[in-house]
Amino acid sequence: MAHAVEEVLKRPLITEKSCVQASEQKKFTFEIPSWATKNHVKEAFAKYFPDHKVLKVNVAKIFGKSRRTARGRTSPVDGKKAIVTVDGDHIEYFPEV
């Protein structure tokens, strides 16, 4: 089953930790689907940001936390994130804003 390159990078994960890494270490964090591999992420990043060279891609699983609600426990939503190390120093996430 082939997946489209457009489906790989779902959204950037913008947190305090990821912003510090981006400014100091040139690392950018993205949410990716559970089926995506490092090669998928590298190809998708090269398509969206052609002027930046990918040096390294790290992939980590994100495990959701179960929550207590008034109706019982909710099941956690698991996911995956990719940390991409690039050669350039700045990436425009939202160029039209």
Structure description:
The chain is α+β, with helices and mostly antiparallel strands and 97 residues long. It has one domain (5-64, 76-86): Alpha-Beta Plaits (2-Layer Sandwich), CATH 3.30.70.330. It has helices at residues 16-25, 38-48, and strands at 11-12, 27-32, 54-62, 67-69, 72-74, 79-86. It has a 4-stranded antiparallel sheet. A two-stranded antiparallel sheet has the order 4-5. Strand 4 (67-69) and strand 5 (72-74) form a beta hairpin. The longest helix is centred in the middle third of the chain and has 11 residues, at 38-48. The relative contact order is 0.24. The mean pLDDT is 85.
* Number of separate strands: 6
CATH superfamily caption: RRM (RNA recognition motif) domain
CATH class: Alpha Beta
Helix count, per DSSP?
2
How many individual domains?
1
